[in-house]
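Researcher: Next sequence.
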Amino acid sequence: PPPYTYSAPGSYSITLAIANAATGCTDTLIRNISVFGIPDAQATGGDTCQGSAVQLFSSGGIAYVWTPSAGLSDDSIQNPLASPSTSTNYLVTVYDANGCADTAYADVIIYEPIPEIHFDTAMVIGQSYQLNVYQGPGYSYQWSPATGLSCTACPDPIAQPLVNTTYSVTIGDSAGCFEITSTYEFEIKPITTIDV
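Model: Next structure:
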């Protein structure tokens, strides 16, 4: 017989009817089966500094298997500690008492120190320059001075200073792992005209 998929858990009665065309004999086989539901896997991760651990949490079953196993204190317990060297997306497979399985993901975000930047350039008065120090989610930005900038708490302001200016940007992460300051120096040149 062809395969059949049950849309809901429960107890079902299956009937198999057999007929012999040559003899006209028939027989019937009846079996009762139980269809179990799929467990509801849940998992959460977190963010931390490089070299520190994050407690992973999961629920929904009686047995748990985490992958990848790298950086985990134990890949077969419900709530392992995760200490990956870089940000990692962990998958947990959750099994219930009937052996049915479901999966869930837990993200671990590792904040790593970023290098300081010391940038300088020259441009003609009235020109603008697009700055961009975006590092990804979870970072904060603070620029100063505000004069000539389109925004001061964003990663990518447009700079249009009218005089020589050195902007500084302080970048930090939401876990408080580090804070660095980079500088962007602009030399402003006057518009040159030629009389003929």
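Model: The longest strand covers residues 101-111. The chain has a mean pLDDT of 93.
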